[in-house]
Fold each of these.
Amino acid sequence: MKVAAVVLMMCSSVGPAFARTIPICGAKGAIPDGKTKDTVALQAAIDKCSAQGGGEVELKPGTYLSGPLDLKSHVALRLYKGATLLGSPDVEDYPIRTDAPWRRVSLIHADKAEDIGILGEGTIDGQGQAWWTRQLTRVKGSPEQPRPMLIDITNSKKILIEGVTITQSPQYNILVVNSDGLTVRNARIINPGVKAPNTDGIDPVSTSHVLIDHVFIDTGDDNVAIKSGLVERGDPNIPSTDITIRDCTFLHGHGLSIGSETAGGVRNVTVERVKFDGTTQGIRIKSARGRGNDIGNFIYRDITMDNVGTAIQITEYYTGFKGDEVAIPVTEHTPKFHDITIENVTIANAKVGLLAMGLPESPIKNLKLKNVKITAERGQIARYAEIAEDHVSITSTGNQAITGKKAEDGAGNGPGVIITGK
């Protein structure tokens, strides 16, 4: 009798949902003792599922030590409660990618796959400590050594990551590049802050139709970073579009970022009901001359922040502001920030409330703040930005009180600033 293929359905038009009556592929030969390498047995189970048309590879309670695994189309990896997929600590198990030599093959990776999942209540542990130490102790100015991500998916469609705890990643926890249809929900991503450098939580790069829903992220870099390629690396100009982030909690980390690598642009992002607590930034949109494209149509609403560094940072000077206000010609990769709405936001105990820094040749256009309450040491810093404020309250607890609405008013507002509203 022919085994039925995995049945997948789109959820909110942004990701797959695996049916429950699907073929099961046991990891025959795996020894979940945390010492024996199970790479061969686990990969064999994935390959078997793929060959029969799809299914779930089940990891029952125990610790499965493994090197990189190649996830195939119509296959889900299900980790039951009490199951841990433990990344091998051996560097040689993670070869450098020939198509992306700045990173190594990841613990879980997929390329040109469709309808894939990482599911369950178990844990994926990358044992990243040794990788972090190499990064933190390298000689200043020396090249970075390529590291693996924990989950790295490229050129794929309909990806579901649900329920799992993801921790101790050598570098980014979840990296999805040039893909369509990513859902991450009811997941936890945990890394030990500054001791775990560059451990971004979720990075969709040139990826569209994304849903990040009920995800807890406590990490050592951007909690989420939406990107679309690095010009200097020759990445294609493929945008990231149609992204929803909702009902999430972000602790330590660099906040919810768009950029800075935005060669293809980023459009149509909605963020709602997100809590920031102790992040170095909150809402963060960042690019720079030569790194940007069309960046806009963003809505942030029903947001709370407490004890953050810069609460709202929107900057086209991410690589550094040198005080040079001379406009230069606009190019394909000049960042063009526009149509950004921030509403129903409460910010307490911030160091900086709002930083809006446009370029003289490409000002920030149509930035709207509505029902925003900010308490910060420094209230508002703006240059080359059109800002419309409706019921905005900014209370400065330091020496940078905002005393006026006009440009060059002594409150940190620079040239080219237009602030309207009440």
Amino acid sequence: MFAQLINLILGSLCDFLSFAFLARFVMQWAQVSFRNPIGRFVIAVTDWAVRPARKLVPGLFGLDLASFLLAWLVQAVYISLVIGITGIYGGVGAAAMGVALVVALIETLRLGIYLAMGVVIVMALLSWINPYAPMAPLFNQLSAPLLRPVQRMIPPIGGLDLSPLFVLLVLQALLIVLGHLRGSMLPFYAS
């Protein structure tokens, strides 16, 4: 029970930190202004690690690779600890580290999908409830790369945009695939 509690707390902290690094990566990729409450929060949570990492890992094509790498590394450290504690794959060894790196990438992608789902849901809710809310432009700009291609294929029906539902369905399918991949590599993570 104590080990499960530690795993829950440590996993939640690592997921939160990785989520913040991914939010910074996505906000910079979408060229969103960080001059809003969410942007300032993301900068405050991640700046201590991203600034030094940028000296070692330069950006590429406008992508903040340092932020993505940090999100992946946080997950890799956490998965390595879990593998070391459980003793699967013989504890901490070369095979275990390889598995940890691959599973960490899967977990980082999973968190990225959750981030995308959250952005689409908040954007859809804001568009229905209060399209002129101060945070609406931020969520519109973040969700546009996901929704725009679908909106070209599926026009609004009766004035109602169904593209968020389709995007959420596709993202949920990707989560299922990633869950099966993760479960096949680490059986105790089967979802």
Amino acid sequence: MAPLPEDLLPAERLAELYAHDSPEDLRRRNRIELAVMGVPAETIDAFLAHPAYSPRAQTGMVESLLALEPARDRGAYIDVAMQATTSRDAWFYLFGALVLRHHHLEVAPVTRLVRVGERSVAAVTRDGKLVVAGQIDYLLWTRPVDRFAAALAAAQAPDVRSREIWLTGAASPLARRELASRGVTVVEGLLARLAPRLASPR
């Protein structure tokens, strides 16, 4: 079972928000924070009214994006996250935001976000990496993965020197070889990095 946002975000911070703020208070706070990030008002309205996201899920995403300060173009993540149609989709995008938060605070600072293809957002880090996360148990080499790899490899910028896909699980040998041939490195076992307690055998 996938970990909940409460397991991956600072427990004290979320506990404070959840204990003192009603769902409407959370929406009001999220609206203010997204506006400060430069997200257009119409996008904020649509996101806060999106049926796939609960106020708590929205708060988890906003908190994650806030943690990326002073990274540019954080609103790009909300644009892509709006494509969610189910709670499962919403978790996929929320998890991705949590990964970016972790990378920014624990691995290397994120300087900006960029769209990759139609449904993904990657982080450009200060050390020149383009990083994208995936909640995938076992990555097989398929046509959609081939297309995504091509989009990731094509993301050109003067400050990007390498590209990485961070997976909760692992990649097949073929997927690793094909991605490597496109200059993309696979980083496996993401959950163990984010939440060692949850990833450890029980």
Amino acid sequence: MPEFDLPCVRSVLSALPLHAVRPAGRESFLQSLPRAEAEYLRTCGFAGTAGELMLLPGPDGLSGAAFGLGDDRAPYPFGDLPFRLPVGTTWRLAGGDYDADGAVLGWCLGGYRYRGFKEPKREPARLLLEAAHDYALAEAHAIWWVRDLINTPANLLGPSELADAAIAVAARHRARPVRVAGAALAEIYPAIAAVGAGSARAPAVAGFDWQGSRADAASPLVALCGKGVCFDTGGYDLKPSSNMLRMKKDMGGAAIVLGLAAALMEADAPLRLMVRIGCVENSISGSAMRPLDVIRTRRGLSVEIGNTDAEGRLVLADLLAEASDQAPALLIDCATLTGAARAALGPDLPAMFASDEGWAARVAAAAAFAHDPVWRLPLWDAYDPWLDSGVADLNNVSTKPFAGAIVAALFLRRFVAPGTPWLHFDLYAWNDSVRPGRPEGGEAQVLRALCAVLRDGRVFIEGDRNRAVT
């Protein structure tokens, strides 16, 4: 993971005070100011409503700023500030009714711009860090990296380059790297090899195994699997051009898994991690898989290809089989898997599927706390026969035009070893528009929610891999 120049500084000769104010605290805030500043804000009608920004004049120019938070408790409002406050200025948080770590995180998230080809029109204002804020900064670094990976054009980030990113983060944290390609890939991960067979850019599986300094061989194992389809044409079931436009983001699940692992390793979580991403491109050629082909999988199940555009579940099938056979305390996968999840929940709300009620409740609570939302959908057993095939163990799609996200999750469940606590996230990994703290482009959905659950390791009962406590 590269180092990023977050819009923060540890020391500076002078920094201007930033007053973040809620409507309910507006009057007490005004009473705390020098009379001239308070009267200025009253005259201008400052009320503390969301996004309201007033610069305070002083004898030497600026003396500070007042910023309205409204009633939003998320970190995102602070993300509105780096590119709204004057260029070249440095600010310090003056205290108020908000979480300082959340403010730092929000500021950093709002200061992100993809710089692969051109610099932003202006540099962001900087925030003076007057406390450690170590975890907020580590989380911001991870999210910036995930966004960069997703935003990188597919001609520059193919399967090999995505695998390189996994190996690089492994090296940074002294993890044991894993990389499989070529003939070995076809033998060990046959479904992934089949998905990538149509591209001139060879598929690979990459990842690493890591153990925190506070962990030992008996510590909980968390397995993380990510769909890394670097570009998805749909294969022979070709996508229309409008649906193909953003398919560079189809590796968003792999990017999020890598960012989550990086954040957990940076926090030295008392865990063991097993990280695997399937790095492929779904293309069309004489060697690409065809509709009604039957392919092998690592689990030994045969799969009839009802649709070549349902390739992400094939990538995850081999990874989930491998990871669940290691008896993890928790298995998590992330994938930009179905349009059906977006049709049901929209772009901002990832779908969560869970085999374990306790883990589902913990993640839902953490998601609400971290303002990183998820919404649970059911693993509805009655739909499982929709995957039946007349020529193979199962089909990769259903012939029914309903419940596409649920059917995809049920397909994945066929490859998870029984009894494994498993969470599957079907997500969008993209911001369609510019909002405070969330610039248009790649997004690290569910990363902060899962970090909140896992980073200190207290959710696990020592010695019992299948149970957890709050």
